[in-house]
Amino acid sequence: MSRLASDRHRSEPVGVAVVGAGYWGPNLVRNLLAYEGCELRWVCDLSIERALRAAGRYTTIRATDSLETVLADPRVEAVAVATPPATHTAVVLECLGAGKHVLVEKPLACSVADGERLVAMAARSGLVLMLDHTYCYTPAVRRLRELVMSGTLGKIQYVDSVRINLGLVQPDTDVFWDLAPHDLSILDFVLDGSCWPTAVAAHGADPISAGRPCIGYLTLPLTGGAIAHIHVNWLSPTKIRTTVVGGSRRTVVWDDLCPSQRLSVYDRGVELAEPDADAATRQALTVSYRVGDMVAPALPETEALQHVVMEFVASIREGRLPLTDGAAGVRVLRILEAAAHSLRERGAAIPLDLTPVGTGNGVARLVAV
Amino acid sequence: MSRLASDRHRSEPVGVAVVGAGYWGPNLVRNLLAYEGCELRWVCDLSIERALRAAGRYTTIRATDSLETVLADPRVEAVAVATPPATHTAVVLECLGAGKHVLVEKPLACSVADGERLVAMAARSGLVLMLDHTYCYTPAVRRLRELVMSGTLGKIQYVDSVRINLGLVQPDTDVFWDLAPHDLSILDFVLDGSCWPTAVAAHGADPISAGRPCIGYLTLPLTGGAIAHIHVNWLSPTKIRTTVVGGSRRTVVWDDLCPSQRLSVYDRGVELAEPDADAATRQALTVSYRVGDMVAPALPETEALQHVVMEFVASIREGRLPLTDGAAGVRVLRILEAAAHSLRERGAAIPLDLTPVGTGNGVARLVAV
Amino acid sequence: MSRLASDRHRSEPVGVAVVGAGYWGPNLVRNLLAYEGCELRWVCDLSIERALRAAGRYTTIRATDSLETVLADPRVEAVAVATPPATHTAVVLECLGAGKHVLVEKPLACSVADGERLVAMAARSGLVLMLDHTYCYTPAVRRLRELVMSGTLGKIQYVDSVRINLGLVQPDTDVFWDLAPHDLSILDFVLDGSCWPTAVAAHGADPISAGRPCIGYLTLPLTGGAIAHIHVNWLSPTKIRTTVVGGSRRTVVWDDLCPSQRLSVYDRGVELAEPDADAATRQALTVSYRVGDMVAPALPETEALQHVVMEFVASIREGRLPLTDGAAGVRVLRILEAAAHSLRERGAAIPLDLTPVGTGNGVARLVAV
Amino acid sequence: MSRLASDRHRSEPVGVAVVGAGYWGPNLVRNLLAYEGCELRWVCDLSIERALRAAGRYTTIRATDSLETVLADPRVEAVAVATPPATHTAVVLECLGAGKHVLVEKPLACSVADGERLVAMAARSGLVLMLDHTYCYTPAVRRLRELVMSGTLGKIQYVDSVRINLGLVQPDTDVFWDLAPHDLSILDFVLDGSCWPTAVAAHGADPISAGRPCIGYLTLPLTGGAIAHIHVNWLSPTKIRTTVVGGSRRTVVWDDLCPSQRLSVYDRGVELAEPDADAATRQALTVSYRVGDMVAPALPETEALQHVVMEFVASIREGRLPLTDGAAGVRVLRILEAAAHSLRERGAAIPLDLTPVGTGNGVARLVAV
């Protein structure tokens, strides 16, 4: 039997629990509290103190260190999982097994095989399995996706993403698994089947002898002759978060750290391939800063995680795949696994087989199989 | 016999000619005119009209279409060569053969073999062979070099360079040979033997079917575990020219298109490799933009080419290698050739043998051998 | 009898109520909830729905529309007042009369006379009366104050503040009373008695026929020959929030909308008064962007209102004047009143008598008189 | 007899001389040399060395210290005057008296009376008298003018101009006369009769005891309820050059020191005057950075002075008033004189009588009267 919420009363809030109250869990708690479409019932963590702290002093929400207790609550329909990545597979399986919809932090799992198990399990049970690909729910990335989907940018020529973070070396992962899921999920979301990576080559460096790459470059040839490139970097006292999406008609620069102008859409794509570009033209381009008008669209300053929560609840209520579904999480894992393979082979290009199905798109129905 | 200028009167200007009055030649003319240390005597181009135009209407300088005439003028001691790259080897050889010092545009030649012939010829004749690696003479790059040389940055961890140009596809070259010489010459100049590339992997894309790469990525492992990366791109309506040099003590961001703040020196390098980075630390870093103070040094707004001209004249007068000598030009060619090789092998890393001798440094004496 | 908290147990949280749950109240609620030094007991608003909404769905805090009930709660020691400005005098008087410490939104009152009554009443009762001059508790303004206090900037020469807001015309006030309190409280806080305004001239414009000034300029001669200037503006689709503080040794630019670089400290003050500044010097300055190094200090990304709450609680516990005390609020009112006078007299300079006592400074003891 | 060029051969270059080879003269020389529409014949300066230096080493142009000699040359039709302001009246009168067209640096003269004499003399003689209001010929200001003229901005509501210069105190003038002519000429050019100042109030400060204002503020009520404001400042180690023009439909921010985005046109003017702006609206505006899209038009990187020279030559050839004619220079003088008056009266508003005739507009014919 499908556990879809379609037949229950729509206006009733969806009962939710948060599992994992470490680094990201408190953000989930705050956003679930703020959304009237759900009712947060539990905060669960192996450390009860952490769970209590995340719930807050004035709250009516219960804290627990027992996942079993949470899953036994029949009014909990959905669980947001923010435990460490290594535990995702076990925790998500348990939640799905108890008939709960799941929102899970990135990366979905530690391997493609595990990720596919989770997706299959959710599909079998007709349950929502949603990835918290938070960036996909920022106003900037949503607009970026619209610009691509609507053909405003023209044919995509390149995507170049730089994510240089403040110098915090993670103890249990490398820079690719820590940071690249952000960029890969954005790439997956923004391109959404219009073109997709056919291979990946990875180059890493560990200049501080951390025992794993702290700087990483991913090169991803895209179908149609385009190319995507991702630079992730732990070693910096300053942040840089810029993505350039070049198209045949327009180019977008997304600077996530410039709140007054996150997106800049430049008007003219490349049309120049002049066999006789004369000196005057070159000279003019040399002194110019750009060749077409630029539009910086107004974007609302809304918290992305609020939209994640809303999409999670909406997909449960409407019995459909969420925009960032388990399949999107698996595609990210495929690239991460292939990148690890490439790294072991000194940067050789590893072919990828990504079915160009796009993301959940918010339309495909959940069907228990 | 050495043709060094050491025995002639120091205060007398050096007689110079410009050969090639196309795209770059007029800039050389303007800067040679402005420098009192030289006397511009000829502007030479296959098109006499172009030569006349470059010389200007009010000038006492002679225009010609005969290189022979120029080289026959005994008061011409030095020639600035700004002809197309394919002609460099022949023209420079002719100039050196006539006993003239040479300043030549990048790239030095079209192959390592040709480049080495030119360097050998200059060495044999005791003549200056200088590369017009213009960016190395900007106040920003000079300061960058000082920051590296003085140890201010600490141990170099990575260099990341982005050069996205206005959409002008060159007819006779690919994006690597057109743009990467800038970044490679800067890398060569700034690192100057403190570390150097041991291999290169190249990835390119041609999404507009131009018949050659229009987007390119070079990954260069450096000695000591560091890494350099260069992104060159013809396909954009807006320019981006940013280089980040990360060190163990400080990180520098060079944004060449921000004249009021070209260099930003961030105070704290990476020191964090915490096995137990707790949630609070991660959270704090997540909301922060950076972790240390930043200093943006005041830089004079001087024209780099003026300093090129001054260094050319000074190296002639002092009988020494210029800061950007023929050997630097050959090192750039070695990387370009290996990159082309890597491209043909789908991005495989091609080992490099770059003698870590640094640049001319302005001290080594010219000796005719 | 003094109602100072000095004799009660220090580690016990201070019982607090929020009165006024409109625009700003919810921010106070959120920050009081987050601070362990206080216990939020009530949210009070004439509209009980608004009070309930501000308290939130999961809360143990009580909502009420009765101020009397709140003041009757003996465990409420302090009240944060965020009602409309026109009600401040009455509400604050009632709170003080009930022996409660008060934190009040800017402006303190609608006239100097009313403001002085409140200050006198608080002083008589030995109660804390603190102004929520929020900007004074941002990391940027605190640093700015330190830079002035420590002499790093040298002698202050000018302060220039621009506050251009998104186009929202307030119904019940003009642009001076709505926006200038921010700038005036910052000025008061940063200069803190090192120099102070001796007069004010006000110019306003109402190009949209709103019936009151929508654009305003305040010019304030400062002691010692310096000058402060404030530009407030409601009529814009984009925000600008920049303050320049020029000193004899350094100049600071504070751009509040640039989170990665809010403060820029330029190294060299003015020292040039050259009778014979020759053409070359002028030319050099003309092409330069600046003449000294710039330092952009790292600032924590903390919420100012959290620090307001902490200072409020600390001043209650320590029985001392808060950093932004009632007297600071009165000084702001004095300037606003004089500015209104100047406006009526077509911009004539109105003398000010501001006792140069600085702000509360967090040291002066509260004494019931 | 009219000395209009209309009857001479159009394709012949206009013979020109530069008088004054100090700070600005060499820029005029360079731009006159580069323009084929004129023939530079003389460089004249009281110091023959300065004249020779400005002419350059390779030139065929003659240098002299005799204005008489220059004016006696029948092939000199026009003179560009770049002598110190105090000498403008005498030099320009002499040139006009000799039947030469004149381009003169700002300010036109040291008083309105002198300025009017020059305008009258030029009018009587049918000669071009053009002001070198250089900024009016920048691509940014030309576009700004178009945006106003075409109604794109809607009704002008305010103009706010900030010109903070590197710390160079001029010996023979105050900050108003030194810097404000730039802003006043831009204001005159951009508004061009659509609205105009009706009064001026000036406030100055001299915190370094230079003996004259080093910081200045001008407030100019404009017809129609709008307002213009100018801040000029000598005392800074960094430059700021920003002008905001607010209109009922759009607002433009011009940042002259940001070459990649000098003009930003914000989409939505002010339309909000909501009597019941509720808390939610205020909250939304508080967290937003702006409310409409922004367009940054592509602007060519051309040198303004080249366009000054072209307009000078074109107005001579076409026998018409130049875009920035003598009358524009007089209007600037009127405001400067009134500002000086206001300063003496402690900032009182001094009424202005500026005939709203707009600038020369490049259409009115020169007629000798």
Summarize the structure.
By secondary structure, chain A is α/β, with parallel strands linked by helices. Chain A has helices at residues 25-34, 48-55, 67-72, 88-97, 112-125, 139-149, 175-191, 279-287, 304-318, 326-344; strands at 14-19, 38-44, 62-64, 78-81, 101-105, 129-132, 156-166, 199-205, 215-221, 227-236, 240-247, 251-255, 263-266, 294-296, 350-351.
Structure, described:
Four copies of one chain form a homotetramer. With 369 residues, chain A is of the alpha/beta class. Helices cover 32% and strands 23% of the residues of chain A. Chain A has ten helices and 15 strands. Chain A has helices spanning 25-34, 48-55, 67-72, 88-97, 112-125, 139-149, 175-191, 279-287, 304-318, 326-344; strands spanning 14-19, 38-44, 62-64, 78-81, 101-105, 129-132, 156-166, 199-205, 215-221, 227-236, 240-247, 251-255, 263-266, 294-296, 350-351. In chain A, the strands form two sheets. Chain A has a nine-stranded mixed β-sheet with strand order 14-13-12-11-7-10-9-8-15. Chain A has a six-stranded parallel β-sheet with strand order 3-2-1-4-5-6, with helices on both faces. In chain A, α4 packs parallel to α5. The longest helix of chain A is centred in the C-terminal third of the chain and has 19 residues, at 326-344. The radius of gyration of chain A is 22 Å and the shape is globular. Chain A starts with 13 loop residues before the first strand and ends in an 18-residue tail after the last strand. Chains in contact: A-B, A-C, A-D, B-C, B-D, C-D. At the A-B interface, β7, β8, β9, β10 and β11 of A face β7, β8, β9, β10 and β11 of B.
